[in-house]
Design brief:
mainly alpha; 23 helices; elongated
């Protein structure tokens, strides 16, 4: 599941590099490993930047002897955003920022689209927070989440905090999906922690559950509990939407670590949703659990579902799928059935436990 969504994000960014207007033109690539797609994208980018590297260095050297104010006018009126982006990595970072201060946010946004964060990280990190916010506003007015996502990991926290208010909750969700470096996600989550309910709600209201599930898939373990509890507290419609999306995308390996981290009340609320008691969904959960050995993550949800008012479907599904369940877990489930007064279910699990010991 994680690889599929990562591949979709990579093809979206690759389409930009290749000059394609519709990323779905590259849907035939989404079954390839995301790392391979990223490597290809970076090679294409290197080819585009390196073919005129010497000439770009010569232009950067020449610009160093020209006053900043003049260099800025030349950049905007003569070079244009594409050439400026190509030259940027050869310019000393402080001077590049001084030149940028004299350029309009609209021009900077057009240039940012062409920049390679691997080559210009030092420049981006030195850009004042107000400029970052102004450029972010320009990019988002054009619906350009790709460029935003490519630079988040090199933007300092003060600049991210300045830019966050210009981003809507759906913007944040889309940018998170397209992050160049997913390890930056938890840092961004810390900055916009008060907006997480709105971000999750946007995943539901805007039919962006693929991006929402990608968010859940990439947050660090220490963030799973509070994000899971927030999700559970947003209402039955959000939970039902999440369950339906996870079922459609077969993303149980993403959701189970989240549910296992939830508080007891949140987990109970989640386990009470009728969809969790659907035989097809229960079967998918057990199959994913068995395939990926996620029993420690799945058992809290199973236990919670068994203590709801309608546990029979859960018991019947577990019995039907007992061949997929390890013997020690069958023992636990059989004992749990007796504790709950479901001796008839325990009896149907017990023979298999005996046979597999």
């Amino acid at each position: 599941m994680s690889d599929h969504l990562a591949a979709v994000a990579e093809t979206t960014k690759l389409a930009r590099v290749l000059g394609l207007d519709d990323p779905t033109d590259l849907d035939f690539l989404v079954d390839l490993p995301p790392a391979a797609l990223r490597e290809y994208r970076e090679r294409v980018t290197d080819l585009l930047f390196d073919r005129d590297a010497q000439r770009m260095k010569a232009i950067a050297t020449a610009s160093a002897i020209v006053p900043v104010a003049i260099s800025s006018k030349i950049a905007e009126r003569a070079f244009g955003p594409i050439l400026c982006a190509a030259v940027a990595s050869a310019v000393e970072p402080r001077r590049a920022v001084d030149i940028a201060k004299n350029l309009t946010p609209a021009f900077l946004a057009e240039a940012a689209v062409q920049l390679d964060p691997r080559r210009t990280a030092a420049i981006i990190a030195a850009v004042p927070a107000t400029m970052v916010a102004d450029v972010a506003r320009q990019l988002l007015s054009r619906g350009d989440h790709i460029t935003m996502g490519r630079f988040v990991h090199v933007i300092p926290e003060p600049a991210l905090r300045a830019a966050a208010p210009v981003m809507s909750d759906p913007d944040l969700l889309r940018i998170g999906f397209l992050l160049e470096d997913k390890t930056a996600l938890d840092h961004v989550l810390h900055i916009v922690a008060d907006r997480v309910p709105g971000i999750i709600r946007a995943a539901h209201d805007q039919q962006m559950w693929a991006e929402g599930i990608d968010l859940l898939d990439n947050i660090a373990p220490h963030n799973r509990a509070w994000v899971g509890d927030i999700t559970a507290g947003l209402g039955d419609d959000v939970l039902d939407g999440l369950i339906a999306a996870v079922a459609e995308l077969d993303a149980w390996t993403t959701l189970l670590p989240i549910t296992s981290a939830m508080s007891p009340d949140s987990l109970r609320r989640f386990a009470q949703r009728p969809a969790i008691h659907d035989e097809h969904i229960l079967t998918a959960i057990i199959d994913a659990t068995a395939t990926h050995d996620l029993w420690p993550q799945a058992l809290p949800l199973v236990d919670a579902a068994l203590t709801t008012d309608t546990p029979d479907t859960v018991w019947h599904t577990l019995i039907q799928l007992r061949d997929h369940i390890p013997a020690d877990l069958l023992t636990r489930l059989a004992d749990h059935a007796r504790e709950l007064g479901h001796d008839h279910h325990a009896t149907r699990l017990e023979p298999l436990r005996t046979a597999t010991t």
